[in-house]
Amino acid sequence: SSSSSSSSFSHLVVNNANDSRKWSSIAPIKKCIFDVGIGLLAASVLVLSPLEANATRIEYYATVGEPDCELTYVRSGLGYCDVSVGPGKPAPRGQLINIHYTARFADGTVFDSSYKRGRPLTMRIGVGKVTKGLDQGIAGGEGVPPMQIGGKRKLRIPPPLAYGPEPAGCFNGDCNIPGNATLLYDINFVEIYSGNRSLPN
């Protein structure tokens, strides 16, 4: 009985020693795989991170651009043209509406877009809640017809109707929009919005 116990114990020790060698040989492999994974993650972060940390404007590339059309300029300096006139109601002053838009600088660089965020912007139009150029360009006035639901329009907004001489869109000292910037907008008037539901066309 004592001999049998001793033999079993020796067999257990040998098995444990073999298991230990097996795990000790696997551990460096696991560590190597883990290290490679961390390295790839760090590399991907480096690739995806901007090299210029002090960039003064945000650039979005995956956005929607409408076809060109010939701009008409009105006395205020606003330029507009309809890519397509919508079949729905005109933009109601003072009410909330949903629009999709892409905003660019005069050189064509995109600095903001609702398409990038994947949802339209809800805004109150015609009552000074947005820039004068957007109010006039969407709600109409001074020779500009109001947009209609479903319509698409291009706007060229000069600095006095945009943000003027002061930079805008500033956060922690960085400003997305420089002073005296001319802004280009592609507007898609999606719907009238009220509360938690959209009003019918």
Structure characteristics:
201 residues, alpha+beta, disordered N terminus, 10 strands, single chain, PNSL4/FKBP13-like, transit peptide, two-stranded antiparallel ribbon, Chitinase A, domain 3, eight-stranded antiparallel beta sheet, 3 helices, chloroplast
Description:
The chain has 201 residues and is an alpha+beta fold. The chain has a domain at 71-167 and 179-192: Roll (Chitinase A, domain 3), CATH 3.10.50.40. The protein is built from three helices and ten strands. The strands form two sheets. Strands 1, 2, 3, 4, 5, 6, 9 and 10 form an eight-stranded antiparallel beta sheet that branches. A two-stranded antiparallel sheet has the order 7-8. Helix content is 29%, strand content 27%. It has helices at 2-48, 114-117, 132-139, and strands at residues 72-73, 79-84, 96-105, 110-113, 121-124, 152-157, 168-171, 174-177, 183-194, 197-199. A hairpin with a 2-residue loop joins strand 7 and strand 8. It catalyses: [protein]-peptidylproline (omega=180) = [protein]-peptidylproline (omega=0). One of its GO terms (molecular function) is peptidyl-prolyl cis-trans isomerase activity. InterPro entries: PNSL4/FKBP13-like (IPR044183), PPIase_dom_sf (IPR046357), PPIase_FKBP_dom (IPR001179). Pfam families: FKBP_C.
